[in-house]
Structures are given as structure tokens and as C-alpha cells.
Amino acid sequence: MSRPLEGLRVVEFGTFVSAPYCGKLFAGYGAEVIKVEPPGGDIARAHGPFPGGKPNPEASALFLYLNTGKQSVVLDPREPADRERLLRLIATADVLIENYRPADLRALGLDFATLAERNPRLVMVSITPFGQSGPYADYRGNNLIAFAMGGQMYITGTLEGGPLKNGGYQADYQGGLNAFSAAMLAVLAAERDGVGQHVDISIQRCMAPILEASVPYFCYLGQWSGIRRGNHMASFIGIYPCADGHIGIHLMPRNWKPFLEVIGRPDLGEDPRFATQADRVQHNDELMAELYAWAATETKHDLYRRAGAGRAPIAFVHTMQDLIESPQLNARGFLQRIDHPVAGEAVYPGPPWWMGPGDWDAGRAPLLGEHTNVVLESIGA
């Protein structure tokens, strides 16, 4: 069975997280993805963790995850001969993914207008902190800056402690995910019209639409109506420490009675302080104290099992070990084992979507420059 994107050629001229994640999705769904790396390799190769804690450009967990199923070609576009090789390679591509500053691409003569002259059907996907135009277009940025300037950080944290950074490189991954989705729209348009286009992905802009209703609230009211509440929106909507981790509850009025049955506290249902949702809000601190005391005695897996049987809205916060052992993720084939000639065998997360058996094949990440000769020979360069 053919994978969905077989027959599509993608050149990835990008680094670290956003462009490589976009390229990873193309590769997993069957496209031929040729990753162009500088002589020293993608900077992600220098980021750990590494097996045994020993830095190795062929064994970075970040690089190995982001670059499954790709081919690696080493070129230095600052050198005229390599720049011409890169141009010839891009001329054979359906899609080009890049995440460099617009000014840097212009300096290399790799702007969209130049590339489109050689390949009119080219879909060029540019992922940058602020987009291709505007006063910040050539500013440098990173994941932290995207969280801050996209508004995500403003709604995260506590009232007392202020804004809080999200974990990991989630802004960069959002950039890569949105780039893949937008690129596929552009590919469909190119097939229909015979003309490519430049897809402009601003990571700042990717952050702003996922702020729930914060922006409309502000536009309607002239102020942000939310409050940073940390782990608790209220006593009955929040995260509590338990005996072996953390659990989360989200109680609507209809859930109150089954919740009390599951936690073995039906007496709280007779307490006039907690009779209605309005009462529970009024006596928030007292109810929160009760729930803290209760949760501290529970173990997360046992509680989750009882909650499911009793139709109570309780879940546990999954650790990385919990994710690896998740019966749901394993039943759906999400976790895959991939062998690598240097890093060895490891478990890798699968794709964000399920499209049917055989739709995704990660393959291993390439060694630096592993496919340079083969790819360049195939284009007569």
C-alpha cells in the first residue's frame, strides 16, 4: 500500500526544530525528503540528550527524533559551487522548507522570486519567528520569544508569580505543524493551477490563534477577563498531588454526586457549604483543603480505574514512563522502535494523526552527509 505523499520530493533547508519537524511529517507520510545540512551539520546534532551523556552528532535524541526517514546532503551555499548544486536540487523539488531569516536567504540569492524562476511550480515554506514582512521580519527569535510575543506566556502561570514559560519547544513544534498543514494546501493548489507559491509561517502568529478566546474577550471588553490560576481554576477544576504523582479533576455540577461516590466522601454532598456550584465557589478554600487531603491518600492508576467505572471526571498526569506504557497509545501503534547504526534501538513517538494501516513509516535518521553523492549524482551535479 502506498503512503499518502509518495512521489512528492521535498528539500529541507532548515535547522533545529520547526523546519525539521515539518520535514519529518512529510517523510513519515511517504514524501522523499532531502535534508540539506551545512558542513558541521544541523545544530540539533549538538543538542542532547546523548547515550551515556557523551556528545555525538550522530546520536542526539532531538536530532534523531526530528529527522526520521530523511536523506542527508551536505552543502555550503556560501560557496558558489555548492550554491549552484543547491539551486539545481531545489529545481527538482515540489516543496522547499526553510527557517532562516529573510535577509539571510536574500544574501544567498535563495529568495522565492529567484527560486521560482527556476521552478515555477515550487511551494516554498518559510518558517520564521515573525514572518516575511513587517517591522520584525528580520529579527532573530527563539522558542521562548515566540511564547512571550505570541501571548501564550501571558495566560500561563499564576496571579502571584506572573507569566510562566511552557515546557519544551512547543512554539517551534507549532510552527512546524502549521507549516506542514499550509504546505499541503499549497501543494494541492499547485497541482490544480500549475503554479507554486510562497507559504509564510510566522511562529508568533501560530501562537496567537490558540489563546482560546483571550483576544476576542479583550477586543470586546477592552481588557483581558481571565486570571492566571496556575494549577487551579477553582477547587473543583485543577491538579492535585497524590501519593505517587498528580491527578486532575474537572467537575461540572452534574459530576458532583458521582465524584463524591468515587472518592468515598458522600458526606460532602450533605454539607451546605458545597450544596451547589455557587456554594462551592463561595467556599472554594474549604473545598480545596478537603480535596488536597483526599488526593494525598490516593494512587493515580487505582483512582483512574475507579473514576472510569464511576463516570467521574478524574485523570492522572502522565509522566514520560506512563506515556511509554500507555495501553491506549500502544494499542494504536503510536510508539515505534527504530534502530540506528550509531545510536542503537530506541522508542520513537509516531505521527499526530491516524490515517490507517501503512500510512506512516518513520525510518531512521540519516548520518551526516550520508546521501550526498547519491543525491547529487541523481541531478547531474
Automatic annotation (TrEMBL):
Listed GO MF terms: transferase activity
Highest taxon, organism lineage: Bacteria
InterPro entries: CoA-transferase_III_domain (IPR050483), CoA-Trfase_fam_III (IPR003673), CoA-Trfase_III_dom3_sf (IPR044855), CoA-Trfase_III_dom_1_sf (IPR023606)
Pfam families: CoA_transf_3
Position of the signal peptide: none
Record keywords, A-Z: Transferase
Transmembrane helix as UniProt keyword: no
Record's protein name: CoA transferase
Species of the source: Tepidiforma bonchosmolovskayae
